[in-house]
Amino acid sequence: MIQYLKYKKMKYFNTLISKKMKLIVVALLTVATLVPAQAQNDFEIAKNVDIFITILRELNAKYADEITPGDLTRTAIDAMLESLDPYTVYYTENEIEDVKMLTSGQYGGIGALIQQYDKDKVAISEIYENCPAHKSGLLAGDIILKIDGKSVAGKSSTDVSSAMRGQPGTTVNLEVFRPSKNKNFTFAIRREEVKLPNIPYYGMLDETVGYIKLDQFTENAGGEVKEAFNNLKGQGMKALILDLRNNGGGLLQEAVKIMNIFVDQGTVIVSTKGKIEDQNHIFRTPAQPIDRDIPVVVLVNENSASASEIVSGAFQDLDRGVIVGHKSFGKGLVQNIVPLSFNSSMKLTVSKYYIPSGRCVQKIEYFSKDSTKSHVIPDSLAVAYKTQNGRTVYDKGGIEPDVKTEDIFASNVLTALILNNLIFDFANQYHANHTMIPEANQFTVDDDLYQEFVNFLKNKDYNYTTETEMVMEDLKEAAQDEKYFDKIKTIYEQLEQKLKDEKSADLQTYKQEISEFLAGEIAARYYYQKGRIISELTVDPEVATAISVLKDQNRYRSILKIK
Q1: In a 3-state reduction of DSSP, which class is residue 217?
Q2: Among 206, 329, 331, 421, which one has the highest count of C-beta atoms within 10 angstroms of its own C-beta?
Q3: How far apart are CA 106 and CA 103, in angstroms?
Q4: Nearest to 306 by CA among 367, 348, 255, 269
């Protein structure tokens, strides 16, 4: 009887697919007759849809084990889109919160960041102020054990994040282990519509220089920057640092609105060009500016992309501000969200964008007719363009800063302390034992606190290999291969011991660097995201460079060729 029911179910499934396939083919062929120019492509689509559905039907009927048609189809769709570019992505109905995040910065959840604590555990890494997680008493450092009664042991942070999200108004039950108390806690947290801030912090760095950190370009980013700008002007701001570092972009229209604060009405900020005419647009500033003369420095780095590059590129091409930092990411493509059947959707690349000088910042060519593989566009093919004041700029796959800053790399010891969660753990322990600290811009890690941290590290494992040790090992192997090692063995062993002695002193050698990072981590426990940012600003060398450019108006005007 069971076999008979399975047979009937399979037969019904096959018949249903067959009918849908025929309808799709008929529809596609009908379109092909209406649009002769696309007839060949439409025929290819119809043919391959037929093949795909036939394969799926045969697998369902004859494969040795049960299949899940939805999973197979998702795999096929993902592979198809991946062959185009990394920004064209399919979202199922269950991923609706991800789609909402792209445009609005909102999602249904509790307002907490999580991280992989080790290969089997996921921990709360940061709490958003005044969100459900914060109001419930959840803390950074809490290790998630169960969600709605189900163990998350061995789950990835992605899986745990998905389980914690949901419709606003619903409740999620979390069981966590709090190391500082050495006990488990249970929280019933009512999900809310969580809005990630476009601007996590803005403020005055001194009497005249204002600072706005813009993290994303979701809905109303332009309005939020305008509000922050006016607030800072009211506090006496005479120059501005706009920080777009690590800003991956967002809505193109918000980039135009932000530029409208600084440039005349009707100024071309960006244009788009796609395969179809509907995707070809010129975006101009729609209103009168607030301040077209205030000196501006824009900070960018290798993670500043998309809308961040529209803004920084427009500042550069219009000679309206000085760009400081590192070359930006190089994403010159525009995506639209396209609704699909069954509440699914697709983020689809529809065009390239061009900043005011006419250049495109795209670094990787995904659409070359001469090659089936994507490739980085070489600098040798870069084309020169002119800014409004006649400066030469290039389309070298990103925005090249007017003032380049030095690369800053974390020391090996700091990297090891971060990766092994030791600074994270100490900050959690410190917060558990201290009810308050000074304001974030005044809090520092003094000698006594640093020694407390060093004591905390005793018997903790944070082994790391320095570049010098790797070179030494390579030297040893080469010397052994060439039969020299026996002759230099004594010298090598003396050098090796000296290196070990120096490495053991790394906690003191890199004390300042470690202390600065530790101060930011501790400040975040008391003052949340704003606290971390404020703490880091006090020691940020790129912010210091930006301030120096703004303070030296002769240099500022010279860079922009302002007469």
Answers
A1: strand
A2: 331
A3: 8
A4: 255
d(CA 87, CA 82): 8
306 catalytically annotated: yes
Tens of pLDDT, residues 11-30: 444 444 444 444 444 443 44
Find all residues with CB under 8 Å of 272, minimum gap 6, and list them. Answer: 252, 279, 280, 281, 283, 334, 351, 352, 353, 354
* Active-site residue, from 317, 395, 402, 506: 317
Q: How far apart are CA 392 and CA 314, in angstroms?
A: 14
DSSP secondary structure letters along 240-282: EEEE-TT---B-HHHHHHHHTTTS-TT-EEEEEEESSGGG-EE
- What would the two tokens of residue 62 be? 């004859």
Q: Residue 44: enclosing H or E segment and its boundaries?
A: helix 39-62
Closest CA to 164 of 143, 185, 144: 144
pLDDT at 400 over 70: yes
Catalytic, out of 331, 347, 363, 530: 331
Active-site pick, 125, 271, 306, 345: 306
Of 63, 44, 53, 61, residue with least CA distance to 22 = 53
pTM of the model: 0.88
Asked if residues 185 and 161 have their Cβ atoms less than 8 Å apart, the reply is no
- Reported as a single tens digit per residue, the pLDDT across 28-82 is 344 444 455 567 788 889 999 999 999 999 999 999 999 999 999 999 999 999 9
The per-residue DSSP string of 302-339 comes to: TT--THHHHHHHHHHHTT-SEEEES------EEEEEEE
| pLDDT confidence of residue 546 | 98
Q: Which distant-in-sequence residues (6+ apart) come within 8 Å of 304 by Cβ?
A: 244, 245, 246, 247, 248, 312, 325, 328, 329, 399
Clarify whether 317 is annotated catalytic: yes
Secondary structure letter of residue 208 according to DSSP:
S
